[in-house]
Amino acid sequence: MPRVRVPLPPRLGAPIPYPVKQSGGSGGILGLLGGLAGLLLCLLCLATMGLLGLFAAFIAVTAYLGWIYRALRAAGNGSSVNYMNMAILLAALCFAGYHKLRRSL
């Protein structure tokens, strides 16, 4: 197939100059602010995801401890047994919290 050349239409005067912002000036400050805003947004997003994970873990721990408490309450019907079971659960929570805090430091 032969190639056909199509002529371009003639230009109607000089080309239109587009406004171009020169580099320098306030661009550096705005670039710095944009970078800091992006970093802050990223940190806030990570903190939000961490809080959602903590909330989900808290729901699971609460359900598990409720199951343990019901099992312990069904094992003994006396009030002294209930107080002893609550003390055991509280000691287990304090022990787990202490080790979590110690490991994070």
From TrEMBL:
Domain of life according to the entry: Eukaryota
Annotated transmembrane regions: 27-46, 51-69, 81-98
Keyword tags: Membrane, Transmembrane, Transmembrane helix
Protein's name in the database: Uncharacterized protein
